[in-house]
Structure formats: structure tokens, C-alpha cells
Amino acid sequence: MFDGGDRPTGTKAEIYAELASQLRGLMEGERDAIANAANMAALIAWGLADLNWAGFYIMRSGELVLGPFVGKPACVRIAVGKGVCGAAAAQKTTMLVEDVHAFPGHIACDAASRSELVVPILRDGAVVGVLDLDSPNLARFDDEDRKGCEALVALYTAGSDPF
Q1: For 3-44, how does the pLDDT look when each residue is reduced to its tens digit (9 = 90+)?
Q2: Burial class (CB in 10 A: 0-12, 13-18, 19+), 80
Q3: Is the pTM of the predicted complex or chain greater than 0.90?
Q4: Domains of the chain
Q5: Count of alpha carbons within 13 Å of 48, Cβ hemisphere only?
Q6: How far is CA 96 from each of CA 90, 101, 143, 149, rounded to the nearest angstrom?
């Protein structure tokens, strides 16, 4: 279960290991995808420093639609192939963008965002959504963040029923 204590500290690997442990506890006995996404977004926003947005976009009728998140109000719909989220969905691969203002077609939902990490959520090879993290810092995310967030998404996908 989530202990609600201080933000995890240590190396990024240690922080992501702690977040994974907390996520397992939060999802124990709960398979609802929306409830688990809401708790996961809150856990990431609590557990990782220097974020201004953490949340989900869910695939609905061929486009990404805003799901559970923590942060300022956001873009409601994103076309596949548009912006960082849409690119991650179209390519079925994690997108790590050091400077979103240099990303062709970036969608500025929050002008304060400077870097972004988007992990696609796949079921049976199809994109069913994405996890989206934004930071006001340039180059906030690195390969350790990619690996850590991909591991969290894998836990989420295994522990939740489809959307």
C-alpha cells in the first residue's frame, strides 16, 4: 500500500524501484484501468521531482483522449501522429524529448513544459493509450527515466483490465 511519506530519494534506479513497489501496493486487488491510472499518475507526480504534468491519454475511436492526470488542465484530444504523444502512439515507441519546443509539431498544452517523456501502453500489439510526463526543465528525462517509466507501464498493464 502507498505509505504517503516523503518523496523517494536515492539513485534514479532506487526511486523507480520504490515507485514500482508503491504501484504494486496501490493496485493490489484492483483491476479497474481508470482507478489504477489515476493512482499511478498521482504516484508519479508525488514521487518524481521537477514535473509539471503526469497523466494518461486513452485511445478512443482512433485518437488519444485525456485520461487521469495531475497538473494543469490539458489538451483533451490528440490525433495519432501529432505532437509527442501522438508520435509515441503512431510509432509504438517511447519518446524522450529534451526540448519540446524543438520537436516538430509539438502541441503546447502548457507553455511552461520544456521536456517530455511519453510511453505507449500496448495490449496485443495495439496502442490503447500513453503515459505522458512533462517537465518545466530542459532535458529533465534520460534513459533511466525511460526504463523506469516503461517498467511502471508494464506493471500497470499487467495489473489492470483493458480500458
Answers
A1: 667 889 999 999 999 999 999 999 999 999 999 999 999 999
A2: middle
A3: yes
A4: 12-159 (3.30.450.40)
A5: 33
A6: 15, 13, 8, 11
